[in-house]
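Let us practice reading a record.
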Amino acid sequence: MKTSYHIPPFAQRCRQAADQAWKASFEHPFVRELAKGTLDKQKFRFYQMHDARYLEAFADATSLIAVRCRQPKDKLWFIEAARLALVVEGELHAGYGKTLGYNEKDIAELELTLNNAAYQNHMVATAQRGSLLEAVAAITPCPWLYIDLGQHLLQELKTIPDDHPYANWLRMYSNPQFNDYMENLLERLQRFSEESDASTCQRAVEAFVMSARYEYLFWEAAYTNQKWPV
């Protein structure tokens, strides 16, 4: 889809490498039913609770990235990204918690699915042990895919009715204010790639693709009520 923000060359490379997983997310039945308003509320509840726990790890990863940045402006930006994940998106989870019957204690005591646990470990481990570029690449698919998806669904729906059961979710991720967030994130991804050698750039692309695959599996886990096999 056409975006309202600039996509630099390295981000384009990452996005193209993850094309199969990216497009699959747009067509996943969880997403399609969410857009139509027909998604089972228990599936959405499952997703929201796991997403709340995932965002804690996203905040951990962005905080670790902030520590590794040399420029104060970069440090502040990633600190703010951590705050945004916990506070702004946390308000969305709290709102749905009231209507779907869960609270902070329920979220804290949630047993993570194998996919959620693996995705969190991937982001945090990359932020700790990978290069700065790899670390940023690993966290980029989450906001980018959601913003892409939210704006795409708004184009499809034209308007979001007030009585749509997932109106708040759709409105948050279709909000054009997120375009500035993406401009800033992708600019940093590009700048860090220009400071990295070819092998580091390739590992960063692979980290990006891995996260894009986990994003697809996040919908799948919620849609199928994923359980540990043993």
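A brief commentary: The chain has twelve helices and no strands.
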